[in-house]
Amino acid sequence: MSLHDERSEAVKIVEFDAAYASDFARLNYEWVEKYFTVEKHDREILDDPQTFVIDRGGQIFFALADGAAVGAVALIPASENVLELTKMAVSPAFQGRGISNHLMRACVAFAKANGTRTVFLESSRILTTALTLYQKFGFVETPTDPNSEYARADIRMELAIESVSM
Fold first, then answer.
1. Which among 12, 54, 74, 117 could bridge 87 via Cys, Cβ 3.0 to 4.6 Å?
2. CB of 122 closer than 8 Å to CB of 153
3. Neighbour-count burial of 118, counting CB atoms closer than 10 A to its CB (0-12 exposed, 13-18 middle, 19+ buried)
4. Which domains does the chain have, with CATH numbers?
5. Are the C-beta atoms of 29 and 36 separated by less than 8 Å?
6. 95 close to 128: Cβ distance less than 8 angstroms
7. Which one-letter DSSP state was computed for residue 98?
8. Torsion sign across C-alpha atoms 122, 32, 8, 68
9. CA 91 – CA 72 distance, rounded (Å)
10. What does 122-158 look like in DSSP terms, one character per residue?
11. CA distance to 37, 56, 149, per residue, from 41 (Å)
């Protein structure tokens, strides 16, 4: 999938490639460290996406501009027909260009193609831009998980895939 932006060259959304694993970590550590403290579960996923995402049947999508990874998002199976959307990041130099919308579309398409019924995410209320994006795609707030692996998570949202139209 390619898209064009008047402020940049073509941006392409691609599935996981180990060549971009360090970019997945870099992009996410950058925003987590800006707003929060890096937690154990962050390190697990970011330092070993092959084991914690791909080998579990998940997927990581990258936004590439001129061959460089400028955005990423992961989907990790949580239970049967349920995926967790996590680790969405767009490089600050590329924010505001709609890249997160394209990453979200790739996630929804992947979920539909794999028979997923629900996609959930955990976030923080201080990330208002991210929450607005999730709401735009149909995510609704649900009760938080008292067993969340993230101390910063103070909001949980879900998307019922069968109700999504692309």
1. 74
2. yes
3. middle
4. 2-163 (3.40.630.30)
5. no
6. no
7. S
8. negative
9. 9
10. EE-TT-HHHHHHHHHTT-EEE---TT-S-TT--EEEE
11. 11, 15, 6
DSSP H helices, 6-163, are 21-35, 40-47, 49, 99-113, 128-136
- d(CA 29, CA 14) in angstroms, rounded, equals 20
- Please tell me the pTM assigned to this model: 0.91
Selection from 98, 155, 84 nearest residue 126 by Cα: 155
* 110-145 residue pLDDT tens: 999 999 999 999 999 999 999 999 999 999 999 999
pLDDT tens figures, 13-26: 999 999 999 999 99
